[in-house]
Amino acid sequence: MAENQRSLVIIKPDAVQRGLTGEILARYERRGLRIAAMKLEVVARETAGRHYAEHEGKPFFDGLVEYITSSPSIVLILEGPDAIGIVRTMNGATRPAEAEPGTVRGDYGLTVGRNLVHASDSVESAAREVGIFFASNPPIDYQRAIDPWIVED
């Protein structure tokens, strides 16, 4: 059986402003991923700086921070077997012009600077990102009837 994972996902300001949050969330849920935590927030500059720390000093860093702090985002934790890879595949290539049809970015994205969603790229990144956004509000553990991948003790 595949490893159960958690991925941080951000439905970014452009998706919220375009009214795509329900469609994007529905795609993840229809795939079978479970929402373990979710909130609507305008990301604070300090939080954005920590989240994008690996890009600090790069020419696009300030634009990333400005954009993600510009208006509300939906920040969530998705959980399931191989969740990290599945979410990244569902989201599509970072550059919407290169994203396959059927992916979030392939169906709705226009530019790399407004590419609708963020998802963790590794187990380590997910742990770091979840800690940044959900340190004071941890994910909820619960079981759905449709979750055969959860084994009761």
Structure description:
- This protein is an alpha+beta fold and 153 residues long.
- It has a single domain (8-134), classed as Alpha-Beta Plaits.
- 37% of the residues lie in helices and 18% in strands.
- It contains 7 helices and 4 strands.
- The chain has helices spanning 13-17, 21-31, 45-51, 61-68, 83-91, 104-108, 123-134; strands at 4-11, 34-41, 73-81, 117-119.
- The protein has a 4-stranded antiparallel sheet, sandwiched between helices.
- It is globular and about 45 Å long.
- The model has no long low-confidence stretch (mean pLDDT 93).
Concise summary:
This protein is an alpha+beta fold and 153 residues long. It has one domain: Nucleoside diphosphate kinase-like domain (Alpha-Beta Plaits, 2-Layer Sandwich).
What order do the helices and strands come in, and which of them pair?
Blueprint: E1 4-11, H1 13-17, H2 21-31, E2 34-41, H3 45-51, H4 61-68, E3 73-81, H5 83-91, H6 104-108, E4 117-119, H7 123-134
Antiparallel strand pairs: 1-3, 1-4, 2-3
Query: What is the H/E order?
Result: EHHEHHEHHEH
The CATH architecture can be given as 2-Layer Sandwich
Average residue-wise pLDDT: 93
Roughly how many Å is the radius of gyration? 15 Å
Low-pLDDT residue intervals, each spanning 5 or more residues? none
State the end-to-end distance: 17 Å
| Share of helix, binned | 25-40%
Taken from the alpha-carbon principal axes, the silhouette is globular
Major beta-sheet overview: 4 strands, antiparallel
Side by side, the strands of the main sheet go 2-3-1-4
The CATH superfamily is Nucleoside diphosphate kinase-like domain
The counted number of beta strands is 4
